[in-house]
Design a protein that fits this description.
alpha/beta, 2 domains, 10-stranded mixed beta sheet, about 40% helix, globular, disordered C terminus, binds adenosine-5'-diphosphate, binds 6-O-phosphono-beta-D-fructofuranose
Length: about 500
């Protein structure tokens, strides 16, 4: 049943709703959880807030009627087939995504994609403007909606506008390649507060404003030319629902399922796990290469060691994603052809989407979690893994190029481009004595539990309320009293208070 209300004090806008509507040929409608870290994080936040979520419901055509799911009010925005091809697959995922991820694959620039991006951002801004109560808080998410802050400010100057970047913000040298770079920066500067995963991302944004817009900047502040407004840009790294996920992982059924998973894999001495969207940013090819070389060298041998790779298909109509899928499937086929035995594959390669309980069981079953992105804004999988390891078992191999590494630097660090180094990190994760691994896991868990998603949201909303001033600590409602946010200053990329 849709909510009876017509306006809300908190409205969030993200490209996707937390669920996709999938209509079968016989007209029956199925509601499926949508993929990705943004949904995982915001879904748990929105369950504690009585707000509305504006986003695409995953099908082309007119927007379905608003509906409620799990206590969240969902307001779909319609996207035509051309919008999906030009705004979502094109400009968002074939222009911005590669530029914001170190140009791992080349970016494509098309003027009609840019037209569609503007058109769809305007549609989102109008949908939000219609739902926001007077003086409401609006929280816009991610690279797909960078024009919404300024468009919304024109429509509704009374609302407070925040934007959060779930992915990296590129250095100005890469960002400057975008033919529409000034419009994108001006779009973001419509917000009161801009949140980023790492300080480096916030700094990149401020530097881009200074160099490309000739804006006056001071530390984390950007003055908006021709107005009296100042916008603050700071790092507030996203996290997971530590308590909720840990509770789930402690359920006897989940723990029993974890034992059952190991059993059905033949109780290997070492179970390695990778869980990723099938994205070239995730370093899946590099991980498989390192694993294959360890098999070739006889340092790992199935069935004692086995790898489970969960790879969720993603953005399948974008060429680079199709190519990647082909390459990965070929590599998995080659490794299995060489090293599997009947009933004991060297790599278990799975395309399925799993319920949270099954993910928690998989995390608990894995001795080594492989998180090897070439670039990743955060990587929530790394934080989910340590959250599920309440037994202090397991080891996390973590790429230095993830946002997560800037908080979880006790993990077994790797540079995925350095295959020899990646192999060493994998071997170290296996061979480190259990006592030392437990100590490491304890430290990782402490960090995630002190900085969970509830605290992230509280810090973000406090920063948005007080922007451009920094919030005073007591303004960070809901944040646990004990831990000192400045304690994070010890990490390699310190978190700006809050
Ligand atoms: P991204 O947002 O780039 O996809 P993250 O690691 O930040 O990467 O978030 C991925 C989220 O999707 C995590 O919450 C993870 O548990 C979830 N996820 C990934 N693959 C699956 C799958 N096959 N089934 C269910 N959930 C998945
Ligand atoms: O985290 C980046 C992101 O693009 C999110 O916006 C989204 O939740 C996730 O990756 C999945 O991507 P898509 O919505 O394109 O399937």
């Amino acid at each position: 049943m849709p909510s009876e209300r017509s306006t809300y004090d908190l409205v969030i806008a993200a490209n996707r709703l937390p669920v996709d509507r999938v209509t079968a040929d016989d007209g029956t409608v199925e509601i499926r959880r949508s993929p990705g870290g943004l949904v995982t994080a915001m879904e748990s936040v929105m369950r504690d807030h009585d707000g509305a979520w504006v986003g695409w419901a995953g099908e082309t055509g007119d927007a379905p009627e608003p509906f409620d799911d799990g206590g969240i009010h969902l307001h779909p925005v319609g996207l035509s087939a051309e919008d999906v091809a030009f705004y979502y697959e094109g400009f968002s995922n074939d222009t911005l995504w590669p530029i914001y991820h170190d140009v791992i694959v080349p970016a494509s620039f098309h003027r009609d994609w840019w037209q569609a991006y503007q058109r769809v951002n305007q549609r989102f801004a109008e949908a939000v403007a219609a739902l926001a109560a007077p003086g409401a808080t609006v929280w816009v998410h991610d690279y797909q909606l960078q024009l919404v802050p300024a468009m919304l400010r024109r429509l509704r100057p009374d609302v407070r506008i925040g934007w959060f970047d779930h992915i990296p913000f590129p250095p100005v040298e890469l960002f400057a390649q975008l033919p529409w770079r000034s419009q994108l920066l001006e779009g973001l500067l419509g917000a009161d507060f801009l949140g980023f995963q790492r300080q480096a991302d916030a700094r990149n944004f401020v530097r881009a404003c200074r160099q490309l817009l000739q804006a006056r900047t001071k530390r984390d502040l950007v003055h908006v030319e021709g107005s009296s407004r100042t916008v603050r840009a700071a790092a507030i790294p996203i996290s997971v629902d530590f308590k909720g996920l840990e509770r789930l992982a402690k359920q006897p059924e989940v723990m029993a399922r974890s034992a059952q998973i190991r059993e059905s894999l033949g109780n290997p001495k070492v179970l390695m796990l990778g869980v990723d969207r099938l994205d070239y940013t995730k370093g899946i090819r590099h991980r498989l290469k390192a694993y294959e070389e360890l098999l070739v060298e006889g340092r790992f041998s199935p069935p004692d060691v086995t790898l489970v790779q969960v790879a969720t298909p993603s953005r399948e109509r974008v060429g680079a994603y199709r190519t990647l899928r082909g390459e990965i499937e070929q590599t998995v086929g080659r490794i299995n052809g060489e090293y599997s035995r009947i009933g004991a594959p060297a790599v278990h390669y799975l395309h399925h989407s799993y319920p949270r309980e099954e993910m928690a069981a998989l995390f608990q079953a894995a001795d080594v979690m492989l998180v090897t992105p070439l670039r990743d804004g955060m990587n929530l999988v790394a934080k989910e893994y340590v959250t599920c390891r309440h037994d202090l078992g397991g080891a996390l191999v973590l790429s230095e190029f993830t946002g997560a590494w800037h908080e979880l630097h006790q993990a077994f660090a790797c540079n995925p481009h350095d295959i020899e180094g990646l192999k060493q990190a994998m071997v170290r994760a296996v061979n480190t004595p259990a006592k030392d691994r437990q100590r490491i896991m304890q430290a990782l868990r402490r960090r995630v539990s002190d900085h969970d998603v509830q605290r992230w949201a509280a810090r973000y909303l406090a920063a948005l309320r007080s922007a451009p001033e920094r919030p005073r600590l007591e303004q960070v409602a809901d944040a646990p009293a004990a831990p000192d946010p400045q304690a994070a200053e010890a990490s390699p990329d310190p978190v700006v208070a809050p």
